[in-house]
Amino acid sequence: MLNSLNKQNMGKKSENIIIGSGPAGRLAALELGILGKKALLIEKNYIGGNCLNEGCMVLCALSDIAIFLDNKKRYENLGLIKGDNFEIFYNEIVNKIRKTQEIIRKIHTHENQSYGNTIIHGEAEVFEDSVLVNGETFEYDNLLIATGSKPFIPNIKGCEYSLSSPDILKLDKIPEKLNVIGGGAIATEISSLFSSFGCDVKMIVRGKFLKEIDNDLREFISTKLLSNVEIYQNQNIVEIKKNKVICEDGEFTGIPFLATGRSPNSEIAKDLVEVNNKGAIIVDKMMRTSVNNVYAAGDVTGSVNLTPIARMEGIIAGRNMAGYSNFIDYKMIPQGFGLNLNVDFIQDNESRDSDEKEIIIPAPAGTGTFWRVLTKDTGISKIRFNPKTKEIHWAGAISPSSVSDVAYISYLMRIKHDMKNFYEEFIEIHPSTDVFHKLISEIYIH
Questions:
Q1: What integer pLDDT is reported at residue 348 of this predicted model?
Q2: Which of 120, 175, 190, 355 is the most exposed place for a label (fewest CB within 10 A)?
Q3: The pLDDT value given to residue 347
Q4: Nearest Cα to 30, choosing from 132, 120, 102, 109?
Q5: Do the beta carbons of residue 309 and residue 317 sit within 8 Å?
Q6: % residues pLDDT > 90 (the chain)
Q7: For 412-425, b where at least 16 C-beta lie within 10 A, e where not — what string?
Q8: Residue 233 and residue 230: Cα distance in Å, rounded?
Q9: From residue 180, how far is each of 170, 260, 440 by CA, in Å?
Q10: Which phi and psi (to 5°) does residue 126 adopt?
Q11: DSSP letters of 295-348?
């Protein structure tokens, strides 16, 4: 364990110090401010963390353009419009994303400062009861480590030639050929985006493609949403070169892109608190580490790498740092990712029955799907349930509205709401692609 700095060198006192201003750290600081406490927020790079600066928000920006291009092709194929091909100015897309990020960072900064919190940009060193940043020392009563994660680099020869998520905004043009190494949600999103931009994309999966996803959703994704992407599963990658991926079964020409998961950024605290064999900081349900007044939240804890979970963990940590005892509950977390239709699902892993039944129906025509009826790819919605208790164990959907539909079903499942009341009393806004009301009605009709 690191020793304290010499007491003679001690500087300022800050009751609550937070290292990292991504979703976990930023929300923890806000929660402390709401509860009448102040925080010192230390950020190495940019406020907003991976989500805003490299991850989900960047993919959202690119997805808007990709969906526009996909719809244009769809309408042309249906004979609804006719026009010249668009030229994509990727460097200008990057410039506008960066400008948008600057606006959001200013909002995040103002938000925290309005509660009296202080933000310092610099690289921190952590000690038992103090933090050193930019040559200045701050003592703490409570410390939160929210340093996030970085792309996981597998032990494959030549990985240094690969791109990864931080490189998306460093490209000056769209590659002609891209080899995406990985088979999870991020790899799928990257493959979908660059395919829509006209890139020849191959997914090289070391195991099974989207192994955590329901079979029906996976089939729809691979055949309908990734129809222009070649997917190669169970590949043993021998070596990666600058413009080639070499596997035991063959070679794939194109720029390699690693999307093989995330690793916790726990190096800053590995000598202060306990970490597991994957480098994740070990925490309890209060987000407290092995050191009583040191907390951790977000990707650095190795939990589910989702922005809403990082926010939730940050809020829980902030409440406990402020002296309000709070515990976290990871049950029935909604998950998803965005392709040219949203893919979202929720599962209650603690209530799996051998005799459960399932219902699956196509997504209906509505905003974002009307013209897909003609090509029979409107999406799907599905639930699995216990026919005796009527409890839903799993729900998933692929549709323009599934990102919000699955979220509210997740909430109803989490609070154990009487779904019969939902079926009888819920009124939808029409037209909508949400069919969970119809699916739940099927439980009680049959």
A1: 73
A2: 355
A3: 78
A4: 109
A5: no
A6: 87
A7: bbeeeeebeebbee
A8: 10
A9: 17, 9, 38
A10: -110, 135
A11: EE-SGGGTS---HHHHHHHHHHHHHHHTT-------TT--EEEESSSEEEEEE-
Residues with Cβ within 8 Å of 271's Cβ and at least 6 positions away in sequence, in order, are: 1, 2
Q: How far is residue 290 from each of residues 93, 142, 371, measured CA to CA in Å?
A: 45, 13, 55
Contact between 283 and 289 under an 8 Å Cβ cutoff? The reply is yes
CATH of domain 335-445: 3.30.390.30
Compute the C-alpha angle 44/38/319, nearest 5°: 95
Q: Name the amino acid, one letter, at 345.
A: F
Q: How confident is the model at residue 423 (pLDDT cuts 50, 70, 90)?
A: confident
What pTM does this model have? 0.93
Domain range list for the chain: 7-54+92-151+262-321, 159-258, 335-445
Domain 7-54+92-151+262-321 belongs to what topology?
FAD/NAD(P)-binding domain (3.50.50)
Task: Tell me the pLDDT tens digit for each residue of 120-129.
Answer: 999 999 999 9
Alpha carbon distance 130, 189 (integer Å): 41
Q: Six-digit token pair at 232?
A: 């190669």
**Radius of gyration of the chain measured on its C-alpha atoms:** 24
Residue 11: pLDDT over 70: no
- Domains 7-54+92-151+262-321 and 335-445 in one fold: no
- Please calculate the CA angle 294-296-299 and round it to the nearest 5 degrees: 165
Q: Which positions ≥6 away from 392 have C-beta within 8 Å?
A: 348, 383, 384, 385, 409, 413, 419, 440, 443
For the domain made up of 159-258, give the CATH fold.
FAD/NAD(P)-binding domain (3.50.50)
Do the Cβ atoms of 251 and 244 come closer than 8 Å?
yes
* pLDDT level of residue 86 (50, 70, 90 thresholds): confident
